[in-house]
């Protein structure tokens, strides 16, 4: 009996699928991503798998929510077919997210000066997401917020109410004698990673939205301020989109003030991710913050010296160099040029 990934994906074990993915990656290479990080591998003409240690059940749940609730005439979302984690190891567990393959043009390869309809179209998508709301902040179905606003280590906690989120923000702003009150703000669906590489234009010029790893329900200003943290994006793109959003969504004076305060929150969280409500591992890393906290009482036993770093052995160096020089698998479009994305960009609207 011949296995068909499109129809038989629910009939086989996780272990069998892991082996199948390894075979497909060896034969075809990766469609997108990094060999050492999250990567996308094409399994059939209509299905891909996104896999890596950064692929989570939260992402699968958020993408499933978006696919079920978004208006497909406004924005397309790939359907999730299956998700599972591999067995835990020293590095964590690898997530496998199976979804529809979407063929089109990445927006990062389209000139904003030529395709002048892109910014208005993205703004329309964000306005559409605002129609979906929740009483609970964070990812759909629960979980700890992750992404640019929360720094590399995430929020490190799960929020059960907007009041809890507000308290979390003010704990950080208090170190700079600032405060915020978002308790009356509506919590709407936010993507929180609107890089152009996460959007694909389909042949009918509808946009498909990808990568829901940071998505959740937050005040709409969270989506706008996060555009400032997309380090791979051009200032031209982020500024145009921010201006468009604040005009079309009619941002209030309070919301504009929130943007500046959220910049402060991110800076504090990025520098002192462990300093709030948790044991501080190294007091020497945050003397100015400790001086401003109202109730900090660290014992000498809590001050941990930095670990001693042993030099690499010649064998370790040789192994690292060999790994770097090893041949990398070819990208999918190099081995299957006729099945890749369309080679030429779409024409602009006349």
Automatic annotation (TrEMBL):
GO terms for molecular function: kinase activity. Residues 59-227 form the Aminoglycoside phosphotransferase domain. Residues 340-350 have a biased composition (Pro residues). Residues 328-350 are annotated as: Disordered. It comes from the Eukaryota. Gene3D superfamilies: 3.90.1200.10. The keyword Kinase applies. Keywords: Kinase, Transferase. InterPro entries: AGP_Transferase, Aminoglycoside_PTrfase, Kinase-like_dom_sf. This is Kinase-like domain-containing protein.
């Amino acid at each position: 009996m011949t296995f068909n990934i499109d129809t038989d994906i629910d009939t086989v074990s996780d272990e069998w699928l892991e082996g199948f993915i390894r075979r497909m990656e060896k034969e075809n290479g990766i469609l997108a991503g990094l060999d050492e990080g999250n990567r996308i591998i094409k399994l059939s003409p209509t299905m891909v798998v996104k896999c890596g240690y950064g692929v989570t059940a939260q992402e699968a749940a958020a993408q499933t929510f978006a696919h079920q609730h978004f208006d497909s005439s406004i924005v397309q979302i790939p359907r999730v077919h299956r998700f599972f984690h591999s067995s835990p190891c020293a590095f964590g567990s690898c997530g496998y997210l199976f979804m529809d393959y979407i063929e089109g043009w990445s927006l990062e390869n389209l000139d904003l000066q030529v395709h002048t309809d892109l910014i208005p179209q993205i703004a329309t998508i964000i306005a559409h997401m605002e129609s979906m709301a929740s009483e609970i902040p964070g990812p759909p179905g629960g979980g700890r917020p992750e992404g640019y606003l929360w720094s590399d280590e995430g929020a490190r906690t799960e929020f059960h109410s907007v009041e809890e989120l507000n308290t979390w923000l003010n704990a950080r702003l208090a170190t700079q004698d600032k405060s915020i009150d978002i308790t009356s703000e509506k919590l709407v669906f936010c993507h929180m990673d609107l890089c152009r590489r996460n959007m694909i234009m389909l042949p009918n010029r509808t946009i498909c939205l990808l990568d829901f790893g940071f998505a959740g329900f937050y005040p709409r200003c969270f989506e706008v301020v996060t555009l400032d943290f997309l380090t791979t994006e051009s200032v031209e793109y982020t500024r145009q989109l921010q201006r468009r959003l604040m005009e079309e969504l009619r941002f209030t004076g309070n919301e504009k003030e929130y943007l500046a305060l959220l910049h402060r929150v991110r800076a504090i969280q990025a520098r002192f991710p462990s300093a709030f409500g948790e044991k501080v591992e190294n007091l020497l890393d945050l003397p100015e913050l400790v001086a401003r906290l109202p109730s900090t009482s660290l014992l000498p036993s809590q001050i941990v010296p930095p670990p001693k770093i042993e030099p690499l052995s010649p064998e370790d160096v040789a192994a690292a160099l060999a790994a770097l020089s090893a041949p990398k698998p070819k990208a999918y479009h190099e081995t299957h040029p006729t099945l890749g994305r369309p080679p030429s960009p779409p024409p602009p609207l006349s």
